[in-house]
Amino acid sequence: MNANPPVLDRATFLSRLNGYIGQSGSPLTVLVVADIRQMGLINGRYGYEAGDRLLGRVGERIAAALRTDDVLGHLGGGSFGILLTRLPSADVARLALNKIDQALEAPISVDGREARIRLGYGLACFPDDASDADRLLHRAETALAGLSASGGHSAFFDKRLHEVVDATNVLVTELEQAMESQQLELYYQPKIDLQNGGVAGAEALVRWNHPQRGLVGPFGFMPQMENCPLIAPFTQWCLKAALCNAVYLDCHCTGLRMAVNLSANVLYQPELFHHVESAMAIWSMPVERLVLEVTESAMMRDPESSMATLRRLAEMGVTISIDDFGTGYSSLAYLKHLPVGELKIDKSFIMQMLENAADRQIVRSVIDLAHNLGLDVVAEGVESEETARELAGMGCDIAQGYFFARPMPRDALEAWLKSSEWSGRNSVQDEAPGNGKQD
Ligand code: C2E
Ligand code: MG
Ligand code: MG
Q: Residues 153, 189: one domain?
């Protein structure tokens, strides 16, 4: 009779893995890390004790799908390590995964409740991917981590992915140090009120004063920052620094409205409200002066949850602005319900609007749509006076772009506010020959 392999603890599993590799040296030993995708939810729903019992049942079901000489271990959390021995080719490993999936198809009953378990699998092969147990396990875990990004069910270790993961880890460590040693700095780009020509506010845009690489823009590190735990302290720092500087600049431009960009990932973190509240409290800043910019694609990643978060922020009195509008899935149905106060038309439409009739028409339509919904419209990427005039003529409320000013450090903004023609000059609209004109 075919006996099922026992479920070993992590240490025993690793020592068996080491022993197996050392003794047999057999090529095409595949190590699989199987991970329960919804483990956090399970613990939340059932409690940790019932979660442990459930894990025990999952282990039994996996064991039942394996061959006697395969090795199974509980690695911790919702993860299991599986050593598949004697495979004729790596592809055959997928058959073993199918068998495990089948064994887990029926729901598992724990304390009278039924749980459905879905596993994700990361696979690594000996000796191609690594020649020792530790590294083989790490490779399989890397393959598993790649699944969260791709959303797939199983993946073999990919050397290129590993290089990306390595580079990301290095960058994240560097970023952590950068935050500690104050290498990150907020630059500020003014926003101009097209209807009266005055300064309507500023947007805070992060820069990294890198000791070797010089000034690095957000595209050089924000994607990695957004996907690591540093994003929460970073957002907290941004809010505090931006509001502190808005208050500092009050002597030149009273009541300057400050816009801070929010990443998709913080939108779903409960600490966000606390961070916003405490930053406002520290600088005694009226809440109406804070604008939070969230990209359309970030909002649409999980519209129901983001709606709840944004509603709470809007109830506090914060203005929510949809950034890069027109580049994501613009769900007009959601737009009606989202508690937003402002649409920011993406610069790709603005920068081409003088030459491209379709872009101009899109810009005009978004301005009308926003106004019909009672929202303000900001145009970003205004690089010429002609574009500013055209936008003013279309009734656009606010503009931002290199034509007015580039993003700059706080002190440069202070000087700009003192001397700029935009601080207290006549309205662009008044001067605009295109004002009110339809094309
Ligand atoms: P965004 O929020 O849409 O910011 C506008 C970007 O357009 C900025 O790029 C700005 O420098 C650039 N820009 C402004 N005017 C013009 C113009 O006339 N022409 C052109 N070609 N570009 C113009 P930047 O500073 O490189 O920021 C890029 C993106 O990085 C931002 O896009 C935002 O999504 C993100 N980002 C920047 N700072 C932060 C931050 O503190 N937190 C978060 N979460 N994201 C940030
Ligand atoms: Mg923005
Ligand atoms: Mg934008």
A: no
